[in-house]
Amino acid sequence: MQDSRTDWAAVRAEVEAGHRTRNAIAARHGVTPGDILDRAARCKWEIEADVRAKEHGLLFEKLYWALERQIDHLLVVELTGTGEHHAAALARLLQTLDRLTALEAREKKAEKPARSREYVELRERIVKRLAELDIR
After folding, report:
1. Are 40 and 47 in contact (CB under 8 A)?
2. Among 25, 50, 90, 125, which is least packed, fewest CB within 10 Å?
3. What is d(CA 93, CA 71) in angstroms, rounded to the nearest whole number?
4. Among 98, 99, 90, 95, residue whose Cα is nearest residue 67
5. Is 113 exposed, middle or buried (0-12, 13-18, 19+ CB in 10 A)?
6. pLDDT number for residue 30
């Protein structure tokens, strides 16, 4: 919800810097991501494609670390109803990671997604843990 106290110059600087996602910038300044998009269109902000790509990279990195934290948590959770719940959440996160990677590859017009060593290791850990939990 925007008001007259919103420092749009600061919002614009943060958007153009590309160090945070629009959602994070919006929350920081008390506006919605839609407000930012509206202001950018109305004021004709020139947002470079690499800034948009950085935002996607930031989101991908957040997802990667969420998966990493979830895996670490699952390593200590007993096989109870709670453990099954976390395993199901982990399976959904893995599907999301795969979709996001495919989307990123499509945006880069690559024939197949680039798989970093960290991505491959993370995916192997997830698959191994799901096998240990006997989740299909």
Report:
1. yes
2. 50
3. 10
4. 90
5. middle
6. 94
Task: Count how many Cα atoms sit within 13 Å of the Cα of residue 49 in the half-sphere of its side chain.
Answer: 2
Q: Are 22 and 37 in contact (CB under 8 A)?
A: yes
Q: Residue written as tokens 């698959």?
A: 127
Mapping DSSP to helix (H, G, I), strand (E, B) and coil, where does residue 135 land? coil
57, 49 contact by CB (below 8 A):
no
Cα 7 versus chain centre, distance: 26
Residue owning tokens 């420092």: 7
User: Residue 83: exposed, middle, or buried by beta-carbon count in 10 A (0-12, 13-18, 19+)?
Assistant: middle
Report the C-alpha gap between 11 and 90 in whole angstroms: 34
Tell me, what's the pLDDT at 65? 79
Those residues with Cβ within 8 angstroms of residue 86's Cβ, 6 or more apart along the chain or in another chain: 70, 73, 74, 77
- Tokens, residue 91: 């399976």
Question: What confidence score (pLDDT) does residue 42 get?
Answer: 93
